[in-house]
Design a protein that fits this description.
The strands form three sheets. Strands 3-2-1-6-4-7-5 form a seven-stranded parallel sheet. Strands 8-11-12 form a three-stranded antiparallel sheet. Strands 9-10 form a two-stranded antiparallel ribbon. By secondary structure, it is of the alpha/beta class. The N and C termini lie far apart (41 Å). The radius of gyration is 17 Å and the shape is globular. It is built from six helices and twelve strands.
């Protein structure tokens, strides 16, 4: 089956956290990934992950009937039958807040007449989480069949922990956490390489019920 395209409308500064999420999305979508609204100084980095366009998706002359915008405020959920090989699924490249803010609707949906809008549930996913959910639905899964962990708390040591204020999808019981995110968080909290922190492998085992942290 021919996969659709995933288009990320880049709306954030290309800092470390955003780049990690984009890399993870690229691992899932490969050559079917497109970035739009990209500044000239960001082009080289993003071209390693997918196709790159400087124009916004709201300006580019795509066939609007082929676009499906993932918008939390859409009335209908995304279903496998919505998607064809030439469909372009649009994700707003927006880091989440504690609750939905309507940025996707304001910056994308309201500016593209003729496109479909679909939601992927009442919980908020990260950019790469949304990309993964879209891929699973494109492969035939129903939204209600997709597992996720809501607001997972990650313990870094005896005294420190972080809570991710969004949902992280799971596949076959495995948490599909952004690769490199734990290391980034540890660096930002001042951990060094000699600190007894937690690896991604230990974290995955914990969420799968196979280990302790």
């Amino acid at each position: 089956m021919l996969m659709p395209y995933l288009l990320i409308e880049h709306l954030e500064e290309l800092r470390d956290w955003v780049l990690l999420e984009y890399r993870h999305a690229s691992e899932w979508w490969g050559e079917r990934l497109i970035f739009t609204n990209v500044e000239p100084h960001e082009r080289e980095e993003l071209a390693k992950l997918g196709s790159v366009l400087s124009q916004s998706v709201t300006e580019f002359p795509f066939d609007r009937s082929k676009l499906i915008i993932l918008d939390p405020f859409a009335e209908e959920e995304l279903k496998p039958e919505d998607i064809e090989g030439d469909t372009i699924i649009v994700v707003g490249g927006i880091l989440g807040d504690f609750e939905f803010t309507g940025k996707t609707k304001k910056f994308i949906t309201e500016k593209i007449e003729g496109a479909k809008a679909r939601h992927i549930g009442s919980v908020q996913f990260s950019i790469d989480g949304s990309a993964i959910v879209a891929k699973l639905i494109a492969e035939g899964k129903r939204l209600g069949e997709i597992e996720y962990e809501l607001n997972p708390t990650i313990k870094l040591d005896e005294f420190s922990e972080i809570t991710l204020h969004y949902a992280v999808p799971k596949l076959n019981g495995k948490l599909l956490l952004t690769p490199g995110l734990i290391e980034l968080q540890k660096r930002e909290l001042g951990y060094t390489e000699t600190d007894d922190g937690i690896s991604d492998e230990e974290l995955e085992a914990f969420f799968e019920g196979k280990g302790e942290i």
